[in-house]
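Practice problem 4.
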């Protein structure tokens, strides 16, 4: 039997929270609901979820702060919900460690598909590595089995998605990978409308590992720039 996976739904609008929870329960998840920032952080601490569906606008403190606090303790895949199609909000959300986002209103079918995709990716990351070798490029060291990254001997704390993205780039060093391909390979999306998500995670990698590591090829994609 499959182990029941837990999803924490954080949303103060009760009708939305209940609809999301009902859909996820129907998909076989164990669901807990929190209605404000502090109780979300508390719930994640008490009963660590496998994934979080997190609204941005919340009482107490907002979803961005919830994301920051939870990710600082333990990486967990997060799907952010926002009422505003405001690019700044979305980019900040992805920068603080969300893995994906949806703009309200969204379909419950789409939400369930995104949660399944998040968990598939997280599970892939946790599976015993077939290849436990350590990738080294100059002062960059990527330990695939432990999912740890160091640069110049300093450990960088990457989110699960940032780590997967870095490993993809490192698998083809000095090769330009189109954003659409990264989106398909790392996120499992075929839809190119999510390429801003790739940009935002690249920003996160540069912030944590240094801006010289990844080269932007305008209009195309990204390449890991490392010494041979
Ligand atoms: Ca809200």
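Answer key:
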């Amino acid at each position: 039997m499959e182990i029941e996976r837990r999803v924490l739904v954080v949303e103060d609008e009760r009708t939305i929270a209940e609809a999301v929870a009902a859909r996820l329960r129907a998909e076989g998840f164990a669901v807990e609901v929190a209605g404000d920032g502090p109780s979300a952080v508390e719930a994640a601490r008490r009963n660590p979820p496998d994934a979080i569906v997190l609204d941005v606008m919340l009482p107490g403190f907002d979803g961005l702060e919830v994301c920051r606090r939870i990710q600082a303790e333990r990486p967990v895949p997060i799907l952010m919900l926002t009422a505003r199609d405001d690019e700044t909000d979305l980019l900040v959300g992805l920068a603080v460690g969300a893995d994906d986002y949806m703009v309200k209103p969204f379909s419950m079918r789409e939400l369930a598909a995104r949660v399944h995709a998040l968990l598939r990716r997280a599970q892939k990351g946790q599976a015993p590595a077939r290849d436990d070798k350590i990738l080294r490029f100059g002062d960059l060291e990527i330990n695939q089995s432990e999912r740890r990254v160091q640069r110049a001997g300093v450990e960088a704390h990457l989110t699960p998605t940032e780590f997967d993205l870095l490993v993809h780039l490192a698998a083809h060093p000095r090769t330009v990978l189109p954003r659409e391909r990264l989106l398909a390979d790392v996120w499992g999306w075929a839809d190119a409308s999510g390429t801003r998500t790739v940009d935002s995670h690249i920003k996160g990698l540069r912030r944590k590992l240094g801006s010289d590591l990844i080269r932007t090829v305008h209009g195309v994609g990204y390449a890991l720039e490392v010494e041979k």
